[in-house]
Amino acid sequence: MKNRNIIIFLLISFFVCSCVTNNTGVLYSVLECPAEVRERVVFYAQEYVKREALFEWGGRDYLEKEGILEIDCSGLIVRVFQYAVKDTKYSLLFEDTNVSSFYHYFTIPVDVPTPGDLIFMSGNSPYPNHMGIFIGMDNENIYFIDSTFIEEQGVDGASLRYYPKDDTRFLFFARLLVRL
Predict the structure, then answer these.
(1) Residue 138 burial (CB < 10 Å; 0-12/13-18/19+)?
(2) In Å, what is the CA distance from 10 to each residue of 87, 94, 101, 133, 171?
(3) Domain residue limits, the chain
């Protein structure tokens, strides 16, 4: 984990301090997702909760879809960030991606999360296999919005949940990288 953080720091330092040329010759910068976009992320995640979106492996439904929405954990992250950067000067570094790619390529770890940051989680692995959107914390719990299916707890889809701060399922907090 420490080596990953060092490598990510060096990459971010390079990208933020310089421009990148994509395959069409257009210059852009990569930086941490700004607070105003993260605030919008929370809003759109709450919209999926209000719509009672159900969990579906590989689900990526848009809010505009009529009827029942189906979405998985990374699909939720992809969609809320797509909505959040719309009509801003920022864009995403991906069209679609999964938990592993978010972890390896599109985020930077943060020690003190703010609403709209990401939480990487796992059951028994040192690598994440689940993720959610950090909403906040109090003295005892960490609150997040995710999309999952846990039959024995009656959880199916996008919901606001919490675990105790010291829950071993939490691996780390991260901030999405965006293009400017």
Answers:
(1) exposed
(2) 30, 21, 18, 25, 21
(3) 33-179
Q: What is the DSSP letter of 33?
A: P
* pLDDT at res. 97: 97
| Structure confidence at residue 19 as a pLDDT band (50, 70, 90) | low
pTM of the prediction?
0.86
Residue 6 has pLDDT above 90, yes or no: no
Return the CATH number of 33-179, one of 3.80.30.20, 3.30.390.10, 3.40.50.300, 3.90.1720.10.
3.90.1720.10
Decide: 80 and 61 in contact? Cβ < 8 Å.
Answer: no
Name every residue whose Cβ is closer than 8 Å to that of residue 82 and which is 6 or more positions away in sequence: 92
